[in-house]
Amino acid sequence: FDAAYLEEAVFRADQMVDLFEDRDRGGYFITPRDGERLIARPKETYDGAMPSGNAAAALVLSRLARLTGEARWRTAADLQLGYLAGATRTYPAGHGFAMLVFLEELWPSAELVCAARTMPEELAAFLREASRPELTVLVKTPETAKPLEELAPFTEAYPIPETGVRYYLCRNGACARPVDSISEVRRLLEQN
């Protein structure tokens, strides 16, 4: 929950888009645009011993869109998912990681912003108890407030309380009323 990791992810994603994106046909090349000129500049979509770079790019862009709320990442993710949809149509079994990305994208998701003076132990315990791939979580503290507001501007609207903790749970661009405990967050998540 260190904002520096989100900042690094945004920086690297910007580099990926700038250096590797095929702006004409979609997808991402294996080699950068300013790299050595090769006979061919491939864009692999199928999985080998490792997941395809294009599927990994789709996952990164999709998660950045949810974490930051930024339209540019949503647009980039949608373009990449569209590119992968075309590539996987003929041989889905060879695109397992892309299928996982599609599943994550299509499955109902939620965004949780925790505003507190420090990282609450109840939140850490909640996240350790079970995998929650549908839930993206940001923790806004006095130390992370400024960088988060630059990286995920929507977090500016969530004040840090003087005492205690405040949780903001959102789905599909709509947020539930703020709650003050992880048990209330759990109840809201279980409603859908």
Can you characterise this structure?
It is built from seven helices and four strands, in the order H-H-H-H-E-H-E-H-E-E-H. Strand 1, helix 5 and strand 2 form a beta-alpha-beta unit. The model has no long low-confidence stretch (mean pLDDT 93). The longest helix is centred in the N-terminal third of the chain and has 18 residues. A four-stranded mixed β-sheet has the order 2-1-3-4, sandwiched between helices. Helix 2 packs parallel to helix 4 and helix 3 packs across helix 4. The protein is of the alpha+beta class.
Strand order of the largest sheet: 2-1-3-4
What is the approximate shape?
elongated
Query: Portion of residues in helices?
Result: 40-55%
For the sheet with most strands, the description reads: 4 strands, mixed
What's the helix count?
Answer: 7
| Structural class estimated from helices and strands | alpha+beta
For the record, give the distance between the C-alpha atoms at the N and C termini, rounded to a whole number.
26 Å
Portion of residues in beta strands equals 5-15%
* Rg (CA only): 19 Å
Tell me the number of strands. 4
The run of helices and strands is: HHHHEHEHEEH
Give average pLDDT, whole number.
93
Q: Unreliable segments (pLDDT under 50, ≥5 consecutive)?
A: none
Question: What's the SSE blueprint?
Answer:
Elements: H1 3-20, H2 53-68, H3 71-88, H4 96-106, E1 110-116, H5 121-129, E2 135-140, H6 145-151, E3 165-171, E4 174-175, H7 182-190
Parallel strand pairs: 1-2
Antiparallel strand pairs: 1-3, 3-4
Helix pairs in contact: 1-2, 2-3, 2-4, 3-4
